[in-house]
Every structure is written in structure tokens, then in C-alpha cells.
Design brief:
This is Ras-related protein. This protein is mostly helical. It is 45% helix and 0% strand. It has four helices and no strands. The longest helix is centred in the middle third of the chain and has 14 residues.
């Protein structure tokens, strides 16, 4: 059994949350190393796809959006509030 240490992080939780908000993504912490929340991440992803039929349609056309190139416009809603 692995024990997670805060100092082991490569990306802070705040950085992950901020990134997700900036690009309009879901944020769920997980670890492949310790298997923490991996199942939950996949389940949330499947539910989101099922709740958003356009994701299936866009994916089937081979359209891929590179979030590192196309930065969405900033809005006040994305920068305020809590997760």
C-alpha cells in the first residue's frame, strides 16, 4: 500500500482546479500509482459523455480540440466560486 505525501505532488490541487476552470473541464483527483479515485474518474467521464450527446457526435467525426492551443475566453463565472 502506498502512502501519499503532499510533497510527492507534481501538480498542486489548486493548479488542477484552476486549469479545469480555465478550460471548462471537470476536475477529479486520482492516482494511477495508488489507484485512488481511478474508477470514479472513468465513471464520471462516461456519465458526462452520456449526458452530453454532442460529445459522442463530435468524437465520432474525429474532431479533436487541443486545449493547449485554443484557450476559451475568460468569464467571471470561471474565476469565481468554489468547485
Amino acid at each position: 500500500m502506498f502512502h501519499f505525501q503532499e510533497s510527492d505532488r507534481v501538480v498542486t490541487k489548486k493548479e488542477g482546479i484552476d486549469f479545469a476552470r480555465e478550460y471548462g473541464c471537470l476536475f477529479i483527483e486520482c492516482s494511477a500509482k495508488t489507484r485512488v479515485n481511478v474508477q470514479q474518474c472513468f465513471e464520471e467521464l462516461v456519465l458526462k459523455i452520456l449526458d452530453t450527446p454532442s460529445l459522442l457526435a463530435e468524437g465520432s467525426k474525429g474532431i479533436k480540440k487541443n486545449i493547449f492551443k485554443d484557450k476559451p475566453p475568460q468569464s467571471d463565472a470561471a474565476t469565481s466560486g468554489c468547485c
